[in-house]
Amino acid sequence: MTAQSTTPLVHASDEVSTGRLFVRTCAAEWTRLWTARSSRWFLAAATLVITGLGTALGFESAADPVEIQGGPAWQTAKSLAMPAQFAFLAFALTAVTSDFATGGIVPTLQWTPRRAVLFSARTTVAVGAATGLGVLLALAAALLAFTTAGSALVLPLAEGPAMVATVGLVFSAGAALAVGLGFLLRNAAAALVTLFLLMLVLPLLLGGLGYEWLADSFPGSGAFFLLMEETPQGDMTDASAAITMLVWAAGALLLGGLRLVREDANR
Hints:
The chain is mainly α. Helix content is 77%, strand content 1%.
């Protein structure tokens, strides 16, 4: 009689270091991100909004340069990033929820059973892509506005890094919030509605009702202040606006990560 082997099974994932697995998972997430049709549509929408409006505003400034003679094109790009950010928020959110909608999260976790690694990789890729593309489009909008405005707008290079930093902060914090909500709610519709409420509806509604202090505690007020350099209600500073957005993003990521690690992914 042949003796049965007692050699324990060794999974491939157990032989790979966490760092190496993270890099591999990021590469897989990057490929998955661009194979999703929704990612390309949201990127196209953001490109159309920010570059199209940047060009249009440049021509409008050239036609009537007296009112804004010598104005910085950087501020034009920042203001255009405000409406364009919603396309990137949806871009980052659907990068998470699409797997839950199709049931693809089950084979994904079979391929990468270390859930913390999957969470970190998916967050890194989605937030990094949304932030990087958003900053590049903001730069393109500034250049287009400057080019088409003639002498009506200026483009001081010294002010460029400040615009990049502001747009990068707003887009990264907003995308992180969207990713966290995606992991937490696992439903695109529910997460989009929640994101829309936090970024737009509740800040405007509460401010209009006279609850400025409460409206300022939402991430949408912080984004509006940083990009538009004003707030529709209450008193904010650059520091308080940035902290507000980062706290919301960190809280959403924490709750979303805990749910992924502790609960069944197919429920």
